[in-house]
Amino acid sequence: MITVDQALSHLFALATPLGVERVALAHAAGRVLAQDAVATRDQPPFSASAMDGYAVAGPVETGDRFKVTGEAAAGKAYSGPVGPKDAVRIFTGAPVPAGCGTVVIQEDVVRNGDTITVSNDPHGHSIRPAGGDFKTGQSLSSPRKLSINDIVLLAAMNIPSVSVFRRPEVALISTGNELVMPGEDPGPDQIIASNTFGLKALLEANGAFVRVLPIAKDTVQSLEQVFALARGADLVVTIGGASVGDHDLVAKVAQQLGLLQSFYKIAMRPGKPLMAGRMGDAVMVGLPGNPVSAMVCGQVFLLPVLRAMQGLAAQRQMPMTATLAKPVAQNGPREHYMRAIVENGALTAFDKQDSALVTVLADANALLIRPIDDPAQPVGTQIQYLPI
User: Which of 1, 38, 145, 307 could form a disulfide with 267 if both were Cys (CB 3.0 to 4.6 A apart)?
Assistant: First the structure.
């Protein structure tokens, strides 16, 4: 068996960044920027009023009086002259007229007809300078997963489309005679293929395009047929059949179809019978069939692989830290990812950790990370976890 870190190193060697494509900004949220995006204009493109008020030429004091000679609104500038005793009625976002260095906010004046009198100490100059946010030529650096706020910035930069890494295409293959799809009528010795849909949701939430293929039966012919349907995928993920039982045929068939196996078996709980390699142009990962094992391996291995394929740093998910609210016993020779719940910075591992218990998984929002041979840890210990 190899360690989790060793397995990730093997996977990163298999998973190279995919090609680059151009997409419209409206479809870029959540994609990974592949090339720096460069602003084509200043923001704001002109000195603009930060408040509703009156633009005047110079500094003002309480009691100063000005004559209102014009108006400036957003999208409609005032282009006339502004004398030392003139004021231009101005609204938020409007260009500041040439020669004006101060905007007196409307709360600080009293207006009588076309005359205003400054009634309070002015609150600064209330002007947003041209280029005060960003200037032409400034860039949003790559690679980065584009957030909603990044999209706002790119739009303000006047960038209608961006270069992004292609979304990884994932083929999900559940295996086993015992499985049926949700909504079907299972026989007395069958169960529902639940982890397929959990993995699909997990992978799609992290940038992948996922194809759920038909369930492969425990026969060479069925596995060959379903593997054929996976052609064209960047990542082929099998669920179940990765162990060494008489009916565990995934590795055997995959190798017959050209799999170059990189590793098999991880020193971790749950998820020991995990394998990976390259199968033609695709990375293949064989997950264990127990639902919790499959989902934990999805968090620990598949998400870092997806990020690497999309041009982000090839590294394991960065853990967070919380305070242990309930003691945990000594860990054994495998890294253990325990379902847990974090509330207000306190972490509690569930008593039941059987890898078939999906109710416990549904209640969890964290995976407590227990290193190999970690001693018993008391309440109050600072401990690492992965949010899920």
Answer: 1
* Token pair listed for 313: 């740093």
In whole angstroms, what is the distance from residue 191 CA to residue 204 CA? 24
CA distances in angstroms from 214 to 118, 225, 332, listed in the order given:
76, 10, 38
Residue 246, pLDDT > 70, answer: no
- Reading the block at residue 148, the tokens are 């909603």
Nearby residues of 16 by Cβ (< 8 Å), 6 or more positions away: 308, 309
% of the chain at pLDDT higher than 90:
91
Place of tokens 């242990």: 324
Same-domain check for residues 69 and 206: no
Ramachandran region, residue 154 (left: φ > 0; alpha: ψ -120 to 50; beta: rest): alpha
CB 79 within 8 A of CB 101: no
Domain limits for position 138:
20-43+132-165
Unique residue bearing structure tokens 């910075």: 345
Res 124 pLDDT > 90: no
**Bridge partners, residue 211, by sequence:** 171
CATH at residue 29: 3.90.105.10
Helix extents (H) in the chain? 4-14, 148-156, 195-204, 220-229, 250-256, 291-297, 303-309, 358-363
E strand or H helix at 12: helix 4-14
What pLDDT is stored for residue 315 in this prediction?
93
Same domain, 117 and 227: no
**Mean pLDDT over the full length of the chain:** 94
Q: What is the pLDDT of residues 247-281, one digit of tens each?
A: 578 999 999 999 999 999 999 999 999 999 999 99
Q: How far apart are CA 69 and CA 86, in angstroms?
A: 6
Q: Please determine, for residue 245, whether its predicted confidence score (pLDDT) is greater than 70.
A: no
- Per the structure, how many domains does the chain have? 4
Note whether residue 56 is domain-resident.
Answer: yes
Res 120: pLDDT: 87
The C-alpha atoms of residue 288 and residue 210 are separated, in whole angstroms, by: 19
Q: In terms of domains, do 37 and 154 share one?
A: yes
Is 47:222 a contact under the CB 8 Å cutoff? Answer: no
Give phi and psi for 250, each to the nearest 5: -60, -50
